[in-house]
Each structure stands twice: as C-alpha cells, then as structure tokens.
C-alpha cells in the first residue's frame, strides 16, 4: 500500500506520543525505583539549574500533574469507548434485521465483508469494530436511496473496514485527550479525518466508475443523517471537501494542517517536559 500524507501524519502522532510517553515513564521509573536514564538528549540544556530552586520544584509538581492527567485520560477514554461499544453491540443484537442482512451479505459477498442491517428510524451507515470491523446500516437507509446509491455507501464503508479506520480514529482520539498540551494534535486529527473520508470516497468512485451516485448521497445525507457516536460514520465529517473532490476531481484539495500557535505551543511543551524529566533523573 502506498504511504499517503495522512498515513505519515498518523505515524508522526504515534511517534510524538510515544516519545512524550517514554519521557514520562522514565520519570516515573526514576521516582519510584531510582532508574537512571543514560540517553538524556537535553541534559546539558538544564545543567545550570539547581535541585533546590523554585523552578525545579514547580516543574516537578507540574510534571506530576501532567503524568497523572495523562494516565487518567487514557483510562477514561478507553473505558468510555468500551462501554459505548458494549451498548452499541447490544443495540445491534436487539434490532438486527436478519432477512435484510442475509440479502445484502449475499448480494455483496464478493466484498467478503459482514454487513448488518438494523431496524432504525433514521438513515445510518457506520463502520464499527476495532479489530474486526463491520458495516452497520439502517433499514431506513435501504428505503431512502436507490440501489446504486446504496452500493456507493457500502463501498465507502468497506474502504473504512479495509484500513481499520475505527481503530485508527480511536487512537487519534486517545492521543488528543491524553496530551492536551500538544494542541497541534487537533489539527492533525482534522487532517486525518478529512483524508480518510476522501480516500473512502475515491475507492467507491473508482469501483463504480462514476462520482454521480456518491455525490447525490452526500447531498441527501447532509440534511437528514444521525450519528450514533460509534465507529466511523458515513457523512459526519468533511462534507465540503468531499463534494468538492466529486464535483472537481482534478482540482487539488488543500486541507490546512499547520498553524503557528498550536505548533509552537506543542514544541515548547515537549521541550519543557523533556527538560524536566531529564533534569529530574540526574
């Protein structure tokens, strides 16, 4: 698979989060077990500070608060998602339309992807599941769109399944909530969200060899959809970018990603945390 820009941004978020998380782990290991780090890249930048200075004490207290907050947010975000997934699974089981599910799975068996139809009063299409994603659509959706439009929706969701987008977006959500002192992550998240949707649209258009049906769906959907808050929903993000790509396929899409203030705040926060950790471990 060709590595695209949003893949690189996602990997960058993982690397930055891993670096900051590793710094925090080193600090905790030093505080609890006396672990001594030998790879302090910023040690010489803080060698002039004294263990007894007010700045040192304030920085250590601040870092302790950040570490506690980060740990709590990782646990809270993960638990919330687990609870939401469990409720969603119960809702699906209670409202599953077996006959329509069998019909769609038979019709689209070439996709080798499970499709579940649920009884629901509004249109709904979502890719749900982290390791084993499934396509969930509502019975109302089947009566609201033409056969080709339904195919476009299913192909779009199938692309999300292929790329494990629900898992990817959960990780992005956890990184944003756990590291609020790295505000550039919110810009990265928006960028990833937009390009994930554009990528899924591109797959559907290439498969159907026409953008007309998908564009029609987006216009209709924007007026009447309901998002359940689980997985990756069909049309809850990036509508304008997606319509522009479908209407003007040759026009370059520019999604803003960097902003001076969030970038500088993020770099300063990472630098300060690194300094405090390395200083505290020596």
A few lines on this structure:
The protein has a four-stranded mixed sheet with strand order 1-3-2-4, with helices on both faces. The longest helix is centred in the N-terminal third of the chain and has 42 residues, at 54-95. The model is unreliable at 39-49 (pLDDT under 50).
Number of strands: 4
Structural class: mainly alpha
Tell me the Rg in angstroms.
23 Å
Write the H/E string, N to C: HHHEEEHHHHHEHH
Number of helices: 10
Helix content: 55-70%
Regions with little confidence, pLDDT below 50 for 5+ residues: 39-49
Spatially, the strands of the biggest sheet line up as 1-3-2-4
Classify the beta-strand content into a percent band: 5-15%
Q: Could you describe the largest sheet, including whether it forms a barrel?
A: 4 strands, mixed
Mean pLDDT over the full residue set: 82
CA(first)-CA(last) distance: 44 Å
Q: Provide the domain count.
A: 1
Q: How would you describe the shape?
A: elongated
Structure description:
- 31% of the residues are buried.
- It is elongated, with a radius of gyration of 23 Å.
- Strands 1-3-2-4 form a 4-stranded mixed sheet, with helices on both faces.
- The model is unreliable at 39-49 (pLDDT under 50).
- The protein has one domain (5-280).
- With 282 residues, the chain is mainly alpha-helical.
- The chain contains 10 helices and 4 strands, in the order αααβββαααααβαα.
């Amino acid at each position: 698979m060709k590595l695209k820009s949003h893949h690189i941004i996602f990997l960058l978020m993982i690397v930055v989060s891993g670096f900051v998380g590793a710094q925090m782990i080193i600090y905790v290991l030093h505080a609890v077990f006396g672990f001594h780090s030998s790879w302090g890249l910023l040690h010489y930048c803080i060698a002039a500070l004294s263990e007894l200075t007010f700045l040192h004490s304030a920085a250590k207290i601040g870092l302790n608060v950040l570490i506690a907050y980060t740990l709590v947010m990782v646990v809270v975000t993960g638990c919330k998602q687990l609870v939401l997934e469990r409720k969603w699974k119960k809702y699906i089981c209670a409202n599953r339309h077996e006959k329509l599910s069998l019909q769609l799975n038979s019709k689209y068996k070439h996709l080798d992807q499970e499709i579940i139809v649920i009884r629901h009063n509004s249109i709904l299409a979502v890719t749900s599941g982290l390791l084993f994603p499934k396509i969930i659509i509502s019975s109302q959706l089947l009566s609201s769109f033409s056969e080709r439009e339904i195919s476009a929706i299913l192909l779009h969701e199938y692309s999300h399944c292929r790329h494990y987008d629900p898992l990817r977006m959960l990780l992005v959500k956890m990184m944003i909530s756990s590291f609020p002192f790295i505000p550039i992550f919110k810009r990265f998240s928006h960028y990833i969200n937009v390009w994930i949707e554009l990528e899924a649209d591109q797959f559907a258009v290439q498969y159907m060899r026409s953008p007309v049906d998908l564009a029609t769906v987006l216009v209709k959907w924007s007026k009447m959809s309901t998002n359940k808050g689980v997985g990756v929903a069909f049309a809850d993000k990036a509508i304008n970018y997606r319509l522009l790509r479908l209407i003007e396929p040759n026009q370059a899409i520019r999604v803003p990603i960097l902003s001076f203030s969030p970038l500088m705040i993020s770099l300063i926060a990472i630098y300060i945390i690194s300094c405090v950790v390395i200083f505290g471990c020596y």
